[in-house]
Specification:
With 90 residues, this protein is mainly β. It is globular, with a radius of gyration of 12 Å. This is Transporter.
């Protein structure tokens, strides 16, 4: 897997701006985030953390991709699907 060649968008989405809209996605079983593969995706975790993620594939409860770490750039990461509260892809 190779990380994206460009940084994520320069804005930070606000959770409150998506609640109640059709584009907003709540964690939805096994397939919801699949439409965000190979797209910049903003993730809100159940513990309150949030960040840019670039998902590339999923296997079981694991979502594989790259997490934006600012000065470190894109870093390979694996997320547990159950820890994702909300997500929005761009």
């Amino acid at each position: 897997m190779t990380p994206p060649t460009a940084p994520p968008p320069s804005f930070t989405p606000q959770l409150s701006s998506f609640q109640g809209t059709a584009e907003f996605s709540r964690r939805s079983g096994g397939r919801g985030i699949g439409r965000c593969f190979f797209r910049n995706t903003f993730i809100w975790l159940t513990n309150g953390n949030s960040f840019w993620f670039y998902p590339v594939f999923a296997l079981g409860n694991s979502i594989f991709g790259f997490r934006w770490r600012g000065n470190r750039g894109w870093v390979y990461d694996v997320l547990n699907r159950q820890r994702i509260a909300f997500f929005q892809c761009y």
